[in-house]
Amino acid sequence: GAGVSQTPSNKVTEKGKYVELRCDPISGHTALYWYRQSLGQGPEFLIYFQGTGAADDSGLPNDRFFAVRPEGSVSTLKIQRTERGDSAVYLCASSFSGVEVTEAFFGQGTRLTVV
Amino acid sequence: GEDVEQSLFLSVREGDSSVINCTYTDSSSTYLYWYKQEPGAGLQLLTYIFSNMDMKQDQRLTVLLNKKDKHLSLRIADTQTGDSAIYFCAEKEGSQGNLIFGKGTKLSVKP
Fold it and tell me: Do A108 and B42 lie within an 8 Å CB cutoff?
């Protein structure tokens, strides 16, 4: 596709359940980022992939959060034992390279609501 | 750690200029950005400036960078109702390239 695609666009889940959020980056982009945007806040960095490996996962809030990118393209953010505080918009972005390139392109986000 | 601060609200009349201000803490940031977010929409990159520049102009947008004071501003000339949105300032974290965002400034444009 032409842009970064995130699915689903909305997800409502019950507290304690497991969820997976998917990101399809722009073809050829090696760098992929996940951010979380809570209501009234700016996006907060979660994890950065360069190719298949997680180059920096320092933003993941705890061990309930995990992300993979097994073939260096599509990425999945996984949240175990969801809590109401996990409710937020999860944004994915991709770029050709992490450092040298100026622009990362963002997807529309997945709005996660934990009830 | 790195931090980006910006005022939360700005209200202007249509046709006036808007100036949105931002301060950041990481002096090693290579690029600084302005993103626009409309209700229910994703983040749209408006413009960016390289850290060795003082000013960048792009049509109605003017970015000013004071590196000594770590202060960034976005000026929108002839503000229109369609400019109503939340504007985020962001700095690029040096080693990995991820962005550090401010909380956003909500711009309201009154006709």
Answer: yes
